[in-house]
């Protein structure tokens, strides 16, 4: 792994990492794609196969609803897979720290591909059932979790350290394309050609993931190796206890995800506050995704930021402010007698526009935080611990939003729809400030000298 410190450079107090040539463009830095053909293949494979994976996620939900006519049954797809995904994140991290990461990722990808192929077979033969869909969707999600955990541990081995922020931004673009294009294609394909073709197209697109992973060299973990099991897990958590900066990044993300996830409010907001029904839900959901995508597209200078702990805290505080602003918009709409109903012709367009801008700002802030948190995890953690810490990170990003859904849902029932985002956003600002104030090493975290 190369050292980002050049021969010479700017003053020690500079907020930007001294680079041989500073980037002037705000557009995403595509240098990682040129510098590492292995990363370029992984990135392209993830982008193409990810669209298919998102198609399948949506198609499974539609398939379950077709069989049951129950939104609760559709929600059960995610709930059924939650605990297995958490276990897969932890165990997949241990596998990545014990064996050839290329082989681990390839095996998990094969399992994910087979589960998708079985979904296609069931759809074509008419043998699909709710139980089968739950089971295969869970196997698919578990395998994808292992692939993602292992892939994240691979990046620092195929890229120089100074290019990891740019790589994280490129991955953010991939995610943005996946979650916008995939679901849209799924809706069109299911409506036009049916479930069999939709699943089958994912099977074909998944080949791109195989090509990206199979072309990697052997990537064995460096340093002391622990075989998967309780001993390995204990060593991972023991390291986390001695890693205040990584621990702080996890805690600040948990705070953001717990108190800043208003997505479960969107259906009620579309009926009771802003009007527009499902169309409003789609607009609000898309606004956050567009914000995340824009942050990645215009991330060109983020790779030069030196004090990344402060950058994470400020981005999370910005996320909290925009979340609170979303709550303020709902409060004002409620007080001024916002349009009630699902008729799009009667929607509160001003309120919807302001709410969408707030969520877009939250998406921008969240993606900036994610870029720096990912970079910190990949640069400050030793290679032989990277998989396990990526596994814990997976648990955080998987479990945090679910806890957030519970908080928002419970508070909105006993109070008002505007209260959870308003109170939660302010709580995020305070929590990030407290962490920044009392975790001195996090506040002083230096990209030139990364320490866990």
UniProtKB/TrEMBL annotation:
Q: Which InterPro entries match?
A: MFS_dom, MFS_trans_sf, TM_effector
Q: Which residues cross the membrane?
A: 72-92, 104-125, 163-191, 197-217, 279-298, 319-337, 422-439
Entry protein name: MFS family permease
Main subcellular localisation: membrane
Task: Print the organism lineage.
Answer: Bacteria, Bacillati, Actinomycetota, Actinomycetes, Micrococcales
The protein's location, in the record's own words, is: Cell inner membrane
Source domain of life is Bacteria
Give the way it sits in the membrane: Multi-pass membrane protein
Q: Pull one GO CC term from this UniProt entry.
A: plasma membrane
User: Where is each Major facilitator superfamily (MFS) profile domain found?
Assistant: 201-452
Q: Which organism is it from?
A: Herbiconiux flava
